[in-house]
Structures are given as structure tokens and as C-alpha cells.
Design a protein that fits this description.
alpha/beta; 8-stranded mixed sheet; 4-stranded mixed sheet; 20 helices
Length: about 650
């Protein structure tokens, strides 16, 4: 990889970490992270202190039967005291819900700390046990088996507890990350504008569902693994350094030892393995990112076919869809092969490293054993400590495939979130319409007001485009003239254009698109959407009957896929049920009565002349809609050049 490539990779990693921290930058989480930091420091200091005291016990009691009972007493006492503390933390965590993640993290640190202490005890047990084997001391051998059962019982309980806390911590982390991204995504206008940012705005379902879940899982695993590896390293490196004094070298009749010899060997072995892993595994990062993108594309294709199954069947287009789906599947399969080959290349390094790790500690310890300065028990104790230190140092080697996947996930989720926060800068070079919002105001367009659309600059042919409260106005245009884009501009969804327009307050307006949105839920929730006000059954039933939908009044609380069950005619009538219930001061329509019969249109117009007599109506439609209902008619015109969309997110995200 080139130097520029290395800089790009480093920059991406730094950006991912920086933005992930930003995701967690909520007041309670910041306070919690501070608490966890101090907890880790305290555990670190306690670890050193206990290790020092424990070393004293080993030196004082390592040969007698009594010392086994003393060690077990201290093990059990420390175990039950810490378990009580962990349970107290978890109980308090249930009471103080906002700090659940913090308290779970603190409990996880405590579990890891106790597990490391248990590993220290187990490593000390190795010496006594293997010495008993070497000396064929049956009573001591049997005694050490009971000691082993005690240690394993403690480690088993700790392992189960740590597994549970680890799993719950993943759940809470997913809740935090997903909630944060959803909150950013569903801020006003962002979900609509995001697809206009180009490829980065595609497949939000996968980024928020799958990628955010994977990111939270892998991030939690990394944090727990790193803390465990760090505590294990700190705990065993001192033991290994002291034991290194017993590894004596003999050269030409003179003997000497190297201070910290075993520690340096473990570090050297881990550094070599980490460097080789990094060199071979670098391609996994871009491959994982591309794999996620192709999976998302394939999933979208399947969803699209499923949603359009009726139309496909009517056209007899199954063969065409099969070819298209097969092509998308082929893209996924080819990337899976590339990813598999990269994993296999990396496995040559990691597997070799793992197999060699079995014999390396014996090789580097052999001089002391064959020189007679180490007993068989000492040898196994040194090997155990070396294995623990080397395992901690090889954390990078063991986790590199997951690190590559984490980088890909974090890039997809964090980049998506970053772009969400910068959508206000999307397309600023194309020009932004100046909107003057006034409560109780009018719709007044300046002479230079125009909307930038893909096919040209849309403007009102007449120079005096103005609508006052209570007026009914038609803005007419041919098919493809940009009526929907002009509608979105008045709805403040499409900000690109030029000039100035005065609009009433957004809370006073209701917008009716050509195809009404039908949310998931009960029929009542469909009718009252958006749910800003509670409506009585009588009000809802009266509105249904006014729009000739009274036959559905008995299914208000039934849950169904109403977007599939209702015809377009019923869906468009439901839009006016909402208008009748919410009673807005302004209604803007984008050809929202195209599927309705003349008699139903007449009913709707009568609503604005009776129940909603003071409501202003602005309709974007065709010239044939002109009748006595509209007091004025304006006409749209379009002139080149058009606006190029989607925009390139890389351009505006740097501004």
C-alpha cells in the first residue's frame, strides 16, 4: 500500500474513533465514562496491591497443606465480597436507569478483574500441582485436585456472570447507537433529503439496523477484550519478570541471566505476529465495507420485487426480475469470494502464530530447565505466565479480522451520521431559496423566485403570485412541468432555487402529496396521522361518513397493512379525513384528487366551503381542474439549465 493509502487508512480510523465518541457524547454517558475511567484506575491499583500481597502468601505458605486452606479462604472471601458488590451495582443500575450502561461497564470491569485474579491463583497452582506429579506425591496430588475444583468453581461463576453482563452491555450499546442515529435521521426533512446525497444516502435500513447492531456488538467486544487483555498483562508481566531470574544461560562455563528475559521474548513474539497480521490483513477493511454495500443493494432489490409483486405478475416480468436479482446476487457472491480469499491468506499467519505459541514458551524457557534452575513445576508456572502475557499482547493478532469488520461498520454508520448532520449544506452551490415564515401570513413569491429542478428552473409565469388566507388557488402545469418539485419547495422540503418567498407558519399548514402516506398501525392511527391531537370516536366516525368511508368505522382499532388493503381512491379520501380532523389554516395539494371521481371531488370542495370555510387551498394540478372552486389560476414554466442530483456528499461534507 502506498504512503497515501496508509495516511488514508489512518485518517479513516481516527475519524471513526472521533465520531464514535461524539455519538456517546450525551451528558449521562460522559459522566458515566468518567466514572468507568476512575473505576479502571482503582481496579488497576487494587490489582497491583493484591498481586503484591498474594506474592507474599506464596512465598510464606507455598509448601504446606495449611497454605492451601488459607488461599482458598481468601479466594472465597474476596469472591463473595466482590459478587455482593457486583449485585449491588446491578440493583442500583435497575433503579437509576439512565446510568445502566455505566454501571454495567463497571460491573464488567469488576468481573474481568476477578477473572484475572483467578487466573493468577490458577497459575500459582500449576507449580504445586506439577511438582507433586514430578515427586510422585499422591497426598499432595489429591489435595491439589480439590484446590483446583475450588478455583474452577469460582472461575465458572465469574465466567457466567461476565457473559451475562457482556450480553446486556451489547444490548444497551445498541440502544444508544441506534437511538442516536434514528434521532439524527428523523430530524425534520433529513430522511427525505438524505437519498439526494448520493450513494451514502442509500439503504438507510441496513445502516441503522444491521450495521449499527454489528458496530455496537463489535465495539463492546473490543472494549471488553482490551480491558481483559490489559489487566491480564499488568497482572502477569510482574510475575513473569520475577520468574525470568530463574532462566539461567551457560556460555563457556559461565552463567548469567537476562533481566525480564521472558517478558522481552513475549513482546518480541507478539510484535512479529502483529506486524505480519497487519501486512497481510489490510485488504480486509475495504473488502468488508464493499461487502456490506453489496449486501444492502441485494436486499433492497429483493424488497423492491416483493413490494411490486402484483405489478410484476400482471406484466409477466418474472424472467426479467430473475435476471436482475441474479445479477445482484452475483455481485454479492464475487465479493464473498474475495473476502474469503483474504481471510484464508490471513489465516496462514494467525494459525501459524497460534500453533507456534504452544511450543515457543517451552523453547525460550528450556535453558533454565535443562540447567537445573527450574523445577518441572516452576517450568509450567513460567510457561503459564508467558502464555497469559503473550495472549494479552497478541490481542491485535487474534482480533484483526474483527478489527477490519469494525472499521467497515464504523465507516458506514459514522459517515452516514456525519452526513446527516451536514445536510443543511447539501447543494448550497446550486443556490438556496430564502424563506420568510410568518404566523398568520400569506404566500407571496418575489419576482425572482424560482425552484431549481433536475429538468430546469421552475417559476410562476405570472409576476404576482400571492395567496391570502381563505383563498382557493390553482397552480397549473403540464405533466413533467415540475409541479411536484414546486410543491416540495413550498413545503420547505426542496430548498434549492433562487429568490425569496413568504410562507405561513409550518404548523398552520397541511401538505397532501399525490400518494398519501399510510403508516403502520391501527386504522385509527392511519386516520389521525400525524398524532398531534387526540380525537374522539364520534369525531373520527363523523369524518369518515363525510368522505363516504363510514363502512370502516367498526375497524378503527384493527391493525393491518392498510397501504396494501386500501385502494388509491380510499387512500386519497383518507388524506381529507385527516384535513377535516386537524382543521389546518392552509392546505397545499399536489394533484391529491387524481384518483377520485367527480362526485367525491365535489364533496371535498364542499368541505372547504362549509366546515373549513376559512382554510386556504393551493392546488398543484392540471388546467382541466379549473372550475368555480378556484378564485385564481397561476401557471408554471420551466427554463434550463437543470439541477444535477444526487449531489456528491464528499463535496458538501467538507464544508
Amino acid at each position: 500500500m502506498t504512503q497515501d493509502g496508509n495516511k488514508t487508512e489512518l485518517s479513516s480510523a481516527v475519524s471513526a474513533i472521533r465520531t464514535l465518541i461524539d455519538i456517546l457524547r450525551r451528558s449521562e454517558v460522559k459522566e458515566g465514562l468518567r466514572t468507568v475511567f476512575f473505576a479502571v484506575v482503582i481496579v488497576f491499583l487494587l490489582n497491583i496491591s493484591i498481586q503484591f500481597l498474594f506474592s507474599g502468601w506464596i512465598e510464606s505458605f507455598q509448601t504446606s497443606f495449611a497454605d492451601s486452606k488459607i488461599r482458598i479462604f481468601f479466594q472465597k472471601s474476596g469472591f463473595f465480597i466482590t459478587i455482593f458488590s457486583i449485585l449491588l451495582v446491578l440493583i442500583v443500575g435497575q433503579i437509576v436507569g439512565r446510568y445502566k450502561v455505566v454501571l454495567l461497564a463497571a460491573a464488567m470491569v469488576a468481573f474481568i478483574f476477578l477473572n484475572v485474579i483467578g487466573q493468577l491463583w490458577l497459575n500459582d497452582w500449576h507449580k504445586t500441582f506439577f511438582d507433586a506429579l514430578e515427586q510422585r506425591d499422591l497426598p499432595e496430588f489429591i489435595n491439589q485436585l480439590f484446590v483446583f475444583l475450588s478455583i474452577v468453581s469460582v472461575l465458572l461463576v465469574l465466567g457466567v456472570g461476565q457473559t451475562w453482563v457482556h450480553a446486556v452491555l451489547k444490548i444497551r450499546m445498541r440502544e444508544i447507537i441506534t437511538t442516536d442515529v434514528v434521532a439524527e435521521w428523523l430530524k425534520p426533512k433529513r430522511a427525505y433529503r438524505m437519498p439526494l446525497a448520493g450513494e451514502i444516502g442509500s439503504n438507510p435500513d441496513q445502516r441503522i439496523h444491521d450495521d449499527a447492531r454489528s458496530l455496537s456488538d463489535i465495539t463492546t467486544d473490543f472494549c471488553v477484550g482490551l480491558v481483559h487483555a490489559s489487566l491480564t498483562l499488568v497482572s502477569f508481566v510482574g510475575v513473569l519478570w520475577v520468574l525470568s531470574e530463574r532462566v539461567v544461560f551457560s556460555v563457556n562455563g559461565s552463567t548469567f541471566n537476562v533481566p525480564g528475559y521472558m517478558v522481552w521474548c513475549a513482546i518480541a513474539y507478539a510484535v512479529i505476529g502483529s506486524w505480519l497480521t497487519w501486512r497481510v490483513g489490510r485488504p480486509l477493511v475495504p473488502l468488508n465495507a464493499e461487502m456490506r454495500a453489496r449486501e444492502a443493494d441485494f436486499r433492497f432489490t429483493l424488497l423492491r420485487v416483493n413490494e411490486s409483486s402484483e405489478a410484476i405478475a400482471l406484466y409477466g416480468g418474472e424472467n426479467d426480475e430473475r435476471k436482475y436479482v441474479k445479477g445482484k446476487l452475483g455481485n454479492v457472491i464475487s465479493m464473498m469470494m474475495n473476502l474469503t480469499n483474504a481471510h484464508v491468506r490471513l489465516m496462514w499467519v494467525t494459525a501459524s502464530y497460534g500453533w507456534m505459541a504452544i511450543v515457543v514458551p517451552f523453547i525460550v524457557t528450556a535453558p533454565g530447565y535443562f540447567a537445573g534452575t527450574l523445577s518441572f513445576g516452576d517450568l509450567m508456572k513460567v510457561v503459564g505466565a508467558f502464555t497469559q502475557v503473550q495472549s494479552s499482547l497478541r490481542w491485535y493478532v487474534d482480533n484483526y479480522p474483527n478489527i477490519a469488520a469494525w472499521q467497515a461498520m464504523s465507516w458506514r454508520v459514522i459517515t452516514y451520521r456525519n452526513v446527516l448532520g451536514k445536510l443543511d449544506k447539501l447543494g448550497v452551490d446550486a443556490g438556496i431559496i430564502e424563506v420568510d415564515e410568518k404566523t398568520g401570513g400569506k404566500i407571496i413569491a418575489g419576482k425572482d423566485f424560482s425552484v431549481a429542478a433536475p429538468h430546469g428552473q421552475i417559476s410562476v409565469k405570472e409576476q404576482d403570485f400571492k395567496v391570502s388566507p381563505g383563498e382557493h388557488v390553482l397552480v397549473a402545469g403540464l405533466t413533467g412541468s415540475g409541479k411536484s418539485t414546486f410543491f416540495r419547495a413550498l413545503a420547505r422540503l426542496w430548498p434549492w432555487g433562487a429568490g425569496r418567498v413568504e410562507l405561513p407558519s409550518r404548523s398552520d399548514m397541511m401538505f397532501l402529496p399525490h400518494a398519501p402516506y399510510i403508516p403502520l398501525g391501527t386504522y385509527r392511527e392511519v386516520l389521525t396521522y400525524p398524532h398531534t391531537t387526540e380525537f374522539s370516536d364520534e369525531a373520527v366516525t363523523a369524518a369518515l361518513e363525510r368522505l363516504d368511508l363510514g363502512h370502516r368505522a367498526d375497524v378503527l382499532d384493527r391493525v393491518a397493512r392498510w397501504d396494501k388493503e386500501l385502494s388509491l381512491d380510499e387512500q386519497q379520501r383518507i388524506a381529507y379525513v385527516r384535513v377535516l380532523l386537524h382543521k389546518p389554516e392552509w392546505v397545499l395539494e399536489d394533484d391529491s384528487m387524481s384518483a377520485l371521481e367527480e362526485d367525491v371531488r365535489a364533496v371535498i370542495q364542499s368541505i372547504f366551503e362549509e366546515e373549513l370555510v376559512g382554510t386556504a387551498v393551493v392546488t398543484l394540478g392540471r388546467d382541466e381542474f379549473q372550475d368555480h372552486f378556484y378564485q385564481r389560476v397561476y401557471h408554471l414554466q420551466s427554463q434550463p439549465p437543470g439541477l444535477q442530483v444526487p449531489f456528491q456528499w464528499q463535496d458538501f461534507s467538507k464544508k
